[in-house]
Design a protein that fits this description.
The strands form 3 sheets. Strands 3, 4, 5, 6, 7, 10, 11, 12 and 13 form a 9-stranded mixed β-sheet that branches. Strand 4 and strand 5 form a beta hairpin. The chain is built from 11 helices and 13 strands. By secondary structure, it is of the alpha/beta class.
C-alpha cells in the first residue's frame, strides 16, 4: 500500500500575509527562514512546503507497482531444448509472502491479445481477487518465435509434464514468493492448451489442484474423456468453458457431463461465440474469480 504523509501546514502557510520570519519546529529542531517582501514570502513558502513534504515522506517505503518481466529463458534437460516465459507479480509484491501461482500455456497469447496482466491488476485493485503470481510459458521456440512446439508438448506428453514437475515449478518456487504446494497452483490453457490442462489433471494432479480449460480441443487424444470417466474422482478443481458453435462444443459438453457425473467441483461457462478471442478473453475474469476470489 502506498504511504502518504499529508502536508498539513500548507493551508496555514497560505493564510499568512506578512511576517518577518517563520519558525518551524520539526523533530525538535528549529528552522528559521527570514522574509523581507511579500513576493519573497510566497517563494519561500513554496520552498518550505516542498521541504516539509519531502521530510515528511523521507524514509516512507513506496509499494512497488505490478511488474511483468522480460522474456526469461530456461534450459530443460528433460526436454533437451530452451523455453521462454514471463512472470507477472502484483503491486506490493515485496511485502507479500506465499502467493498462489497461475501457470498459463500459450503464455504469449494470454499476454497479447489476452491482456491478462492488465486484467489481473484491475481485479486486484477493485478487490475482486486477491494478489497472485502469473507465469506465462511460451509454446514458441525462443530462437525462432515463428515456430511452435504446441503439438509436441500439449498432447499428454509425459516429458513435458515431467519438465513442469522437475524443472519449471522448482525454478518458479526458487525465484518467486509463491506457495510450494499443489493447492496453490492452477494451470490454464485454450484449445490445445486446454487439452494440455486436461492432461495435467490426469497425470499431474499431485502438482496442480486447479485445472482451467478454455475451448479444449481434445480430439487428438480421443481417450481423454474415457480416462476421466473410468478413473476415480481426482483431487481437482475445474474451470471449463466453450463457445456454442464452431468450437468443439459437442465434445466439451460431453466432457462437462462426465465431470459433473463424477462429482468434480466445476465451473462451466458457455458463450455465444466460436473458437476465438471473442470467446476466451471475456471469460478471463470469470476464471480468475473462480480460483482467486477475495471472498474465498
Amino acid at each position: 500500500m502506498d504511504l502518504f504523509v499529508p502536508c498539513f501546514l500548507v493551508d496555514e502557510f497560505r493564510r499568512i500575509r506578512t511576517m518577518s520570519q517563520i519558525i518551524v519546529g520539526f523533530t525538535g529542531k528549529m528552522l528559521v527562514l527570514p522574509y523581507r517582501s511579500r513576493s519573497l514570502l510566497k517563494t519561500g513558502l513554496a520552498l518550505l512546503t516542498l521541504l516539509v513534504c519531502s521530510i515528511g515522506t523521507a524514509g516512507a517505503v513506496q509499494a512497488q507497482p505490478s511488474n511483468l518481466t522480460d522474456a526469461i529463458r530456461i534450459r530443460s534437460e528433460v526436454l533437451g531444448y530452451n523455453l521462454q516465459y514471463w512472470v507477472y507479480t502484483p503491486a506490493g509484491y515485496e511485502s507479500i509472502e506465499g502467493l498462489p501461482v497461475l501457470f498459463l500455456s500459450d503464455g504469449a497469447w494470454y499476454l497479447d491479445p489476452g491482456e491478462l496482466p492488465e486484467l489481473i491488476d484491475k481485479m486486484i485493485k477493485d478487490g475482486e481477487i486477491g494478489p497472485i503470481v502469473a507465469v506465462f510459458l511460451d509454446a514458441r521456440i525462443p530462437e525462432n518465435t515463428s515456430l511452435s512446439r504446441r503439438n509436441a508438448q500439449y498432447f499428454c506428453n509425459p516429458r513435458f509434464i515431467q519438465f513442469y514437475k522437475d524443472e519449471f515449478i522448482p525454478t518458479i518456487e526458487k525465484n518467486y514468493k509463491v506457495q510450494a504446494n499443489r493447492v496453490s497452483r492452477t494451470i490454464v490453457g485454450l484449445s490445445f492448451g486446454g487439452l494440455n490442462s486436461a492432461c495435467f489433471g490426469l497425470y499431474a494432479h499431485d502438482s496442480f489442484e486447479g485445472i482451467a480449460m478454455q475451448s479444449p480441443a481434445t480430439h487428438p487424444i480421443r481417450t481423454i474423456h474415457s480416462a476421466y470417466a473410468d478413473s476415480s474422482r481426482l483431487p481437482l478443481n475445474i474451470f471449463l468453458s466453450s463457445g456454442d458453435h464452431d468450437d468443439n462444443e459437442d465434445r466439451t459438453r460431453r466432457f462437462r457431463d462426465i465431470l459433473m457425473e463424477k462429482g468434480y467441483p466445476l465451473k462451466y461457462v458457455e458463450v455465444p461465440f466460436a473458437h476465438n478471442w471473442n470467446n476466451w478473453k471475456p471469460l478471463l475474469d470469470d476464471l480468475l474469480v473462480y480460483f482467486y476470489s477475495s471472498t474465498n
